[in-house]
């Protein structure tokens, strides 16, 4: 097998709560390869979000080793981490996290602004990303003029727009009804089929079903790590 | 980088317009500060110009001998009890002085001037001699000035100021026409060129100048007299000393006695004017600094509030790849933008103010450099008041920011 895209070794994340130390992650080892479709499950408070944030370079581990595409994240400065978040990672949040005053198009355009891409090209790419998630006809809408499912699609378009190596989604369907949730999952399936690497956190087994590999976390440690061996037909 | 700057500007614009009243209130300090600094500057530069113009009327090289000093703290009673300045001094001063090249008296009172039905009141009747032309900056635009003969014989001739000429003689030349000064008929022999207002206070164009002999005969023997001595400009202070000596001898003052007369010069106005300028400048500066500091603190506060309110937004921006500097820039630009907006508002108000002053008080215009300085000042306030909140925003932890409710 090729070198993993993401390699975590003995990753810990400790919070000091008063005098007490809380181990949100208590030593996690996991390798994630290109074009994997991975779901993370586990009870509330088990450390799923913490793990996602560390993978997404939003948070730094307290201990352990994290290599992203073969490079140690620990040696990177703030600007390099920002650049990884901008170029390599697309985040999708449970609460969408769109900027309410901006239109769908402007929201999707945002990562491209930080990537210093010229305006015309930004417009082309942002429109393309919105079309890709089926919102080509909603570009001028503000988040509060869109349904929950549509908002999450805008967020996915925003995550996609820089062509990241990996999409991280922390309970992307958690705030959606099951029908919208299913639509969002179909979108992830398509993205995966197109070659994207996807990691998603979920509480629902039927959501996790979409992934090829499922990790369960318990008390900050990996409990099970199961890869389906039935190959999906890529249609 | 330019693209990002433009984006930040748009974000700032959006943020400011989303909170119009708040922005308006916070910029008030800046508006007042910039308004006061520009108004002060405009006022002073206008005053300067008007002062210079007025001073040229007095003449740098003329010493004015009169009963009292123009600006003094002398006891009013002392001044009142001083003997009058006498016309006879003129010849003696001229004989004894090395420096005096010309000397003339001025006697003055208010009077009505009329022609036919038309009458204008409150004109300045001035009695003087032909040498007045040399001791003042009076230029005759039409006709001629008083002659020696007319002065000696007490002729009823008058040289009128521009305002009088314009109000009493609408369509015809005033020369050789007659006007009534008080109850007496005078022949107009000349018109003084338009001079404008002195310090924006009183018009110099409402004078009726008549021979001193005539003045004495018809109007008053006693009263206020001032002698105007034109001297060599290079030796003005020596001339002043010399004339003081001559005057003391004329008055028979013993060495221990104080002068019972005053010798004034343009410089006295300058001193007084500089004091006024300093007062205006000081007050303006005080108001400016105060309101800019208050305004700056207000903007800093509002920026802190803005950062707090937009914590989540900052988290999102960081999550999708904004660096610290980009966030810093965003908030700094917003603070600067608010300040520049306030500065611009202050500048516009000041500009309107300067137009009003120009129209109603004295000629003035806001100097360009002042506009540049005030915008620079706004920028500075923006940077200073924006830096701390912007740093706070830039240093926010993305996870905590995203979790902020
Ligand atoms: N800032 C923090 N300070 C202290 N403890 C924290 C902090 N953030 C997370 N934790 C703790 O770390 C643990 C893991 O949190 P995390 O958010 O990763 O859980 P999770 O698995 O995502 O749960 P959920 O399914 O409810 O989202 C929890 O026990 C939480 O209390
Ligand atoms: Mg979570």
Question: How would you characterize this protein structure?
Answer:
- The complex is a heterodimer of chains A (235) and B (405).
- With 235 residues, chain A is α/β, with parallel strands linked by helices.
- The radius of gyration of chain A is 18 Å and the shape is globular.
- The relative contact order of chain A is 0.19.
- Chain B has 405 residues and is an alpha+beta fold.
- Chain B has 14 helices and 12 strands.
- Chain B has a 6-stranded mixed barrel. Chain B has a two-stranded antiparallel ribbon with strand order 8-9.
- In chain B, strand 2 and strand 3 form a beta hairpin.
- In chain B, helix 2 crosses helix 12 and helix 4 crosses helix 9.
- Chain B is elongated and about 105 Å long.
- Chains A and B meet through helix 2 and helix 3 of A and helix 1, helix 11, helix 12 and helix 14 of B.
- The site of adenosine-5'-triphosphate has 12 residues of chain A, from strand 1, strand 2 and helix 1.
Which SSEs are present, and which pair or pack?
The complex is a heterodimer of chains A (235) and B (405).
Chain A: E1 6-17, E2 20-32, E3 37-41, H1 48-55, E4 63-68, E5 71-72, H2 78-87, E6 89-92, H3 104-114, H4 119-132, H5 148-160, E7 166-170, H6 178-193, E8 197-201, H7 205-208, E9 213-218, E10 221-227
Parallel strand pairs in A: 3-8, 3-9, 6-7, 7-8
Antiparallel strand pairs in A: 1-2, 1-4, 4-5, 9-10
Helix pairs in contact in A: 3-4, 3-5, 4-5, 5-6
Chain B: H1 2-18, H2 20-58, E1 62-66, H3 76-81, H4 89-96, E2 100-115, E3 118-128, H5 132-135, E4 140-143, H6 148-153, E5 157-160, H7 162-168, E6 178-181, E7 184-192, E8 197-198, E9 202-203, E10 207-211, H8 212-218, E11 225-231, H9 236-251, E12 262-264, H10 266-309, H11 311-319, H12 324-360, H13 368-394, H14 398-403
Parallel strand pairs in B: 3-10, 5-7
Antiparallel strand pairs in B: 1-11, 1-12, 2-3, 2-6, 2-11, 4-7, 5-10, 6-7, 8-9
The complex binds adenosine-5'-triphosphate and magnesium ion.
């Amino acid at each position: 097998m090729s070198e993993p895209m993401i390699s975590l070794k003995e990753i810990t994340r400790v919070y000091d709560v008063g005098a007490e130390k809380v181990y949100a992650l208590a030593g996690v080892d996991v390798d994630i390869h290109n074009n994997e479709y991975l779901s993370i499950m586990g009870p509330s408070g088990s450390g799923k979000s913490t793990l996602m944030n560390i993978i997404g370079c939003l948070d730094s581990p307290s201990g352990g080793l994290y290599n992203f595409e073969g490079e140690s994240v620990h040696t990177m400065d703030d600007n390099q981490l920002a650049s990884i978040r901008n170029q390599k990672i697309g985040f999708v949040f449970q609460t969408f996290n769109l900027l309410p005053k901006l239109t769908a198009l402007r929201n999707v355009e945002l990562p491209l602004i930080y990537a210093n891409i010229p305006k015309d090209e930004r417009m082309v790419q942002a429109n393309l990303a919105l079309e890709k998630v089926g919102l080509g006809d909603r570009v001028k809408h503000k988040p509060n003029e869109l349904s929950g499912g549509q908002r999450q699609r805008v967020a996915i378009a925003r995550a996609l727009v820089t062509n990241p190596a990996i999409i991280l989604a922390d309970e992307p369907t958690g705030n959606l009804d099951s029908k919208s949730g299913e639509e969002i999952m179909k979108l992830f399936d398509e993205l995966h089929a197109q070659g994207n690497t996807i990691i998603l956190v979920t509480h629902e087994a039927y959501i996790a079903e979409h992934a090829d590999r499922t990790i369960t976390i318990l008390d900050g440690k990996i409990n099970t790590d199961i890869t389906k061996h039935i190959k999906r037909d890529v249609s | 980088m330019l693209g990002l700057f433009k984006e930040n500007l748009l974000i700032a614009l959006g943020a400011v317009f989303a909170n119009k009243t708040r922005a308006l209130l916070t910029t008030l300090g800046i508006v007042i500060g910039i308004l006061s600094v520009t108004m002060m500057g405009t006022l002073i530069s206008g005053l300067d110009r008007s002062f210079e113009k007025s001073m040229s009327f007095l003449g740098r090289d003329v010493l004015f001998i009169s009963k009292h000093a123009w600006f003094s703290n002398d006891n009013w009673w002392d001044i009142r009890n001083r003997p009058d300045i006498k016309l006879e001094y003129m010849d003696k001063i001229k004989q004894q002085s090395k420096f005096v090249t010309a000397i003339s008296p001025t006697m003055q009172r208010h009077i009505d001037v009329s022609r036919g039905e038309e009458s204008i009141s409150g004109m300045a009747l001035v009695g003087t001699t032909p040498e007045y032309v040399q001791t003042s900056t009076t230029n005759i635009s039409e006709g001629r000035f008083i002659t020696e003969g007319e002065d000696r014989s007490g002729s009823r001739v008058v040289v009128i100021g521009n305002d009088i000429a314009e109000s009493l003689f609408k369509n015809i030349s005033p020369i050789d026409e007659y006007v009534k000064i008080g109850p007496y008929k005078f022949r107009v022999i000349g018109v003084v060129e338009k001079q404008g207002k002195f310090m924006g206070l009183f018009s110099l164009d409402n004078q009726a100048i008549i021979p001193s002999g005539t003045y004495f005969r018809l109007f008053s023997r006693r009263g206020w007299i001032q002698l105007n001595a034109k001297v060599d400009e290079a030796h003005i202070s020596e001339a002043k000393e010399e004339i003081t000596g001559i005057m003391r001898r004329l008055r028979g003052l013993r060495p221990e006695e104080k002068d019972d007369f005053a010798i004034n010069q343009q410089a006295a106005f300058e001193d007084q004017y500089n004091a006024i300028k300093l007062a205006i400048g000081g007050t303006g500066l005080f108001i400016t600094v105060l309101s800019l500091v208050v305004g700056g603190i207000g903007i800093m506060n509002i920026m802190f509030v803005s950062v707090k309110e937009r914590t989540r937004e900052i988290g999102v921006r960081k999550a999708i790849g904004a660096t610290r500097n980009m966030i810093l820039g965003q908030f700094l630009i917003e603070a600067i933008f608010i300040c520049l907006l306030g500065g611009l508002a202050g500048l516009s108000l000041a500009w309107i103010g300067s137009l009003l002053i120009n129209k109603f008080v004295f000629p003035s215009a806001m100097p360009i450099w002042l506009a540049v300085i005030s915008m620079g000042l706004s920028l500075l306030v923006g940077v200073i008041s924006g830096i701390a909140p912007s740093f706070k925003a830039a240093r926010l932890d993305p996870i905590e920011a995203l979790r902020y409710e």
